[in-house]
Write a sequence for this structure.
């Protein structure tokens, strides 16, 4: 009921639509489109890498069994990932969870930050340096106010380590394809936390597979 495949498949559909429009409008050369297609075809292996390291995410979830509120931060392509992470936590663990664009932090959401609050941060990969610098600034802001920062960072990137209480490593992928791998640890986190809290993740309360009334 709390579908995880829906988010991933919608992303892939959007990538494919964008590539088709680029081909039709001639805004990208054929070899560029082929390159992105090959990168997309490699994504299942990258996602499997995340799944192979799931135990560390499960352990992280078990550490937060008494948590009652969680924030998620993302920038650029990481913002919808933050929203999906928060949604899954609401659906499965029945916790207060909010996803925010990191650039909006000082416009209100930072008031929610208190000592010990888990804040999961989707850090832009290398190649988006301006976004990364601003994300680091946001991480520093919430950590200075007592938040526990859990940062999703691509492997080999150690620049974030000084600002993170916990680092979750992601396989290296092209910048705009990062959501396909970054969302998986957040979904696993929500699933495991709900399970250890005693909730049935296959039948979340008040949810139905399809919405039939408005």
């Amino acid at each position: 009921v709390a579908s995880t495949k829906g988010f991933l498949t919608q992303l892939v559909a959007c990538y494919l639509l964008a590539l088709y429009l680029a081909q039709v409008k001639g805004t990208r050369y054929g070899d560029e489109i082929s390159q992105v297609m090959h990168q997309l075809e490699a994504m299942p292996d990258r996602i499997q890498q995340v799944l192979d390291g799931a135990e560390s995410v499960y352990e992280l979830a078990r550490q937060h069994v008494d948590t009652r509120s969680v924030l998620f931060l993302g920038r650029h392509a990481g913002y919808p990932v933050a929203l999906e992470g928060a949604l899954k936590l609401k659906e499965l663990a029945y916790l207060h969870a909010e996803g925010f664009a990191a650039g909006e932090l000082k416009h209100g959401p930072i008031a929610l930050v208190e000592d010990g609050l888990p804040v999961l941060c989707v850090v832009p990969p290398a190649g988006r340096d301006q976004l990364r610098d601003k994300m680091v600034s946001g991480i520093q802001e919430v950590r200075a106010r007592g938040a526990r920062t859990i940062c999703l960072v691509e492997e080999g990137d150690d620049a974030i380590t000084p600002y993170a209480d916990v680092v979750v490593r992601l396989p290296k992928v092209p910048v705009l394809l990062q959501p396909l791998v970054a969302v998986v640890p957040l979904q696993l986190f929500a699933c495991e936390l709900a399970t250890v809290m005693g909730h049935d993740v296959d039948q979340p309360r008040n949810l139905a597979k399809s919405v039939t009334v408005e």
Observations:
- Strands lie at 69-74, 96-101, 118-122, 148-154, 166-170.
- DSSP finds seven helices and five strands in the chain.
